[in-house]
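Re: [help] complex structure
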Amino acid sequence: MAFESICEKCEEVLQPYLDRELDEAERREAQAHLDECGYCAKRYHFEEDLRRFVRQACDEPMRPELKAKLAALRTPLL
Amino acid sequence: MSGPVAEPETSARRLAEEARDRARFEEEVLELSDQVYRVARRLVPTREEAEDLVQETYARAFRSWRSFTPGTNLRAWLMRILTNLNIDRGRREQRTPDVRPMEEGDYFLYNKLEEATPDEERIVERLSQDSVVQALAGVPHDFRDVIVLVDIGDFSYGEAAQILDIPIGTVMSRLHRGRRILKSRLAEVAVGEEA
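Output below.
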């Protein structure tokens, strides 16, 4: 599909864009592309949602017992 | 006692200063424990192993506090201890044997999910929490380490490169490929749940 070959560039910058690793000029360029390409914009939002979802799904808080054990490892004050 | 001796007052003051610096360092390290645990929990398969790994990391960090240069990145320093311990202890699972080449592309999961629910606004909500945890655990560790550091630990590419002692280009390519594998696994689970 012609669509996909146009957006190969987008696929390449999507990851660093989402990870906030592009410099200002690159970021503007990527944003400009997303503003005019519905295909990539939809997928960008999906990737963004997915990342958020992975982070939430994987968040298992530490048990208080462990926290206490870590605190007990501190060097005793003289 | 003979020979030159540091003035008792000076050395006492120095000891007190050092104790204070050390206590401050330990407090700062402890404040990071939630973040450290969050990463550890996804690097190893079980909660018990994650807890052991974090405890060993803290024990070592407190022991080697002098090797930390104040003003540098404490979070990355700590995480480097953790990932090295994880490698040393051979705690990593074996490489998953059935990794097929995943060349479906970045949009594979999206397309799969979109096929299943054409006009869903937030397609990602079709995935369950368990399926995400399971899919991530199934990503081979070289790739998963990078995903965990960047996506869950909030480390930059540069920090992840420093922590894992690999070039930044490798961080990017592993991240890219790792996320593809993750999405591909998720697509299997999502479509599997559907059937």
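The helical segments of chain A are 2-6, 8-18, 24-36, 38-57, 64-72.
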